Amino acid sequence: MTLNLGHVHGSSVNLIAGVALHGLVDVLSPARVVLYASVLVPLEGRWLQAAFFVSSFVHIGADTRLVISLLIHISIAACFFAQRREVGTAVMTYYMWTVHMPLLVARAVLLHHYISAVLVTLVVACGAYSGAHLLRRLGLVVDDDGVCHVRTHVVLPSLAQRIVVCHVVADFVM
């Protein structure tokens, strides 16, 4: 089941693309890559959405505290229920750029995983630079009128949700 994240405009698409690519750091660990084989399990519907939301909650909780993660997710849920999906998406995008991804790079440096730190930085920068085109190719954005940057509709198909779950599981077991 595809999650509709709402409409975004202009450079927001590029910021979302940078976030979408930060997990590519996992390719530096063969054990993590093997874990991604579970993406092929055809988990769909409510079970997948539950796994996705739990993964998101735990992933943010690892950066902050579970209470902060709960507050962030409650605010995002409130935006979705108020039919302001784009605001909820903006909250998560802001969090990822200002807290999660800088912490990912900092952890890599502290653990002397300099290649990981450089890879995350480059991949996120490339995603941010080529955002709209990249997300269209990955099937994560749909333009309502077929014109770039005019009412771009951001979605997370089932495969993308399964990839997020694998990324979070890899972060915890490796």
Question: Would you give an account of this structure?
Answer:
By secondary structure, this protein is mostly helical. It has one domain (3-173). It is built from eight helices and three strands. It has a three-stranded antiparallel beta sheet with strand order 1-3-2. Strand 2 (141-143) and strand 3 (152-156) form a beta hairpin. Helix 1 crosses helix 7 (131-137), helix 4 runs antiparallel to helix 5 and helix 5 (85-110) packs antiparallel against helix 6. The longest helix has 26 residues, at 85-110. The model has no long low-confidence stretch (mean pLDDT 81).
Keywords:
174 residues, mainly alpha, three-stranded antiparallel sheet, 3 strands, 8% strand
Round the Cα radius of gyration to an integer and report it: 16 Å
Major sheet attributes: 3 strands, antiparallel
Strand content: 5-15%
Overall residue-averaged pLDDT value: 81
Biggest sheet strand line-up: 1-3-2
| Helix run count | 8
Low-pLDDT segments = none
Q: What sort of overall outline do the alpha carbons produce when their principal axes are compared?
A: globular
Number of extended strands: 3
Short overview:
The chain contains eight helices and three strands, in the order E-H-H-H-H-H-H-H-E-E-H.
Task: Note the topology.
Blueprint: E1 3-8, H1 11-21, H2 30-35, H3 45-63, H4 66-81, H5 85-110, H6 114-129, H7 131-137, E2 141-143, E3 152-156, H8 158-173
